[in-house]
């Protein structure tokens, strides 16, 4: 299951970029891939560049009214969330991009999962940014992005086969 957060405030789960990536992944892994469709409530931003301010705005738009980015929905390792140790979770492949704006929070959650004794494997896409594998032009024309995307898919397929 792939759950996308704030990004769907400016895109939709049925856009071609998601379809192309997830159908390829489904074929490679021989698995069902679900991309959750969420209602969009934001006009397209004026700038094409993702900034921390935009990240915070997208995050706030993806949360229930009255929630904050430090609440249990977006900060499941925080003091307002139930203890991770009490959750019965399946094995987790936790994929991060080394140059993602979310890397610090992503790694904080990964460490919390480990500390809670969860079966979690870390997969790092080196020198890549957030959702790099969705950038079809880069995947098709940049050798590094293509190689990292292939490694990501291989890692996901290997994890699925192992579990």
From TrEMBL:
Alphabetized GO MF terms: hydrolase activity
Residues in coiled coil: none
A Pfam family of this chain: Abhydrolase_3
Chain ranges of the Alpha/beta hydrolase fold-3 domain: 43-133
PANTHER family: ARYLACETAMIDE DEACETYLASE, CELL DEATH ASSOCIATED PROTEIN
Family: Belongs to the 'GDXG' lipolytic enzyme family.
Protein name (database record): Alpha/beta hydrolase fold-3 domain-containing protein
């Amino acid at each position: 299951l792939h759950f996308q957060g704030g990004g769907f405030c400016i895109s939709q789960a049925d856009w071609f970029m998601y379809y192309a990536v997830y159908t390829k992944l489904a074929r490679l892994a021989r698995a069902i891939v679900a991309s959750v469709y969420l209602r969009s409530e934001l006009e397209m931003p004026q700038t094409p560049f993702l900034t921390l301010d935009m990240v915070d705005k997208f995050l706030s738009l993806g949360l229930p009214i009255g929630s904050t980015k430090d609440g249990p929905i977006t900060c499941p390792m925080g003091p307002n969330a139930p203890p991770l140790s009490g959750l019965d979770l399946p094995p987790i492949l936790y994929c991060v991009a080394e140059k993602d704006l979310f890397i610090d929070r992503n790694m904080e959650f990964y460490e919390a999962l480990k500390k809670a004794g969860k079966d979690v494997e870390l997969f790092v896409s080196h020198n890549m940014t957030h959702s790099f594998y969705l950038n079809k032009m880069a995947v098709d024309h940049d050798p590094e992005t293509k190689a990292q995307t292939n490694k990501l898919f291989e890692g996901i397929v290997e994890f699925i086969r192992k579990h």
